[in-house]
Each structure stands twice: as structure tokens, then as C-alpha cells.
Amino acid sequence: MQNNPDLESRAVPEDHQDLRLWLRLLTCCNLIESQIRSHLRTDFESTLPRFDLMAQLQRTPGGMKMSELSRHMMVTNGNITGITDQLEKEGLVERIKVATDRRSSIIRLTAKGKRSFRKMAKSHEEWIRSMFAGLSEKNRASLFEALGELKQMTQVNLSGRA
User: pTM of this prediction?
Assistant: First the structure.
């Protein structure tokens, strides 16, 4: 057990297993995300939101409108605007006005942004691989299947509420 308390450490053996599982899952997600944030900060002087925005743009070479980025990243337009402003100042993204809508712009990676993102993405992949390297292939496959099942059941439960 680590010295710093985490979400899972709040659970006691008398708590039901579903609560303990939920807290363990949350703790794992938080620990992994924390490591990725730290690597991005120290290795690239970047942040996870910047990386995520650039990843969205890398997948869409033609670029995306701010509203599309906001929807894909599940954050407000204001968040996207702030990140985009920073990336534009650094020459990593460009705004292209939409001819049919003067208020809209398409955001896309510049050549410099593509090069920068490729370096970060390569390192990101290595970090993820190293974090999971201690799990056997069998355990990784089992975890993947179990989480897929959980995801599917959760989506069904959410759609039943709508």
C-alpha cells in the first residue's frame, strides 16, 4: 500500500464489493492519469487537455470547428478557446475562417503541430505500455473484456433513464 491515501483506502472490508470495486477502478484511473499528466508536464511542458485537443485534430486532418472539439472532448467551448489560443500562439494550430459562416473557424494542426504531436503521442504510447507491462497478457485481456462488459451495461442503464 502506498503512503498517500487514495480513494480505495476509504473503503473498509465491511463495505460491499461493488463499492470497493468502484473505488479501486477510480483509484487506478486517477493514478494512471496523474502519471500521464506528470510525463507531459516534465517531458513536453504540456498538459493533458492540450494533448487531447491535438489528438482530436490529428484524427481529423481537415480540422474541426470549436463546437465539434468541445463535443468530442466533453468540455465547454470556453475551455477549447483557451487551449486553442495558446496552441495558436505557439504555432501548433491554425484557425481557418469558414467562408459560409463568418463566426466559425476550423481549427487544424500546423506542420509544426503535427510534428510536436507525433513526438508526444509516441512517448504517450510508451508510458501506457510501461504502466500495463506488469500485467500478463491473459490478465490484460480479462480486464479489457470485463471493463467492456461494464461499459456496455452502464450504457444500457443510462439509455433506459433517458
Answer: 0.83
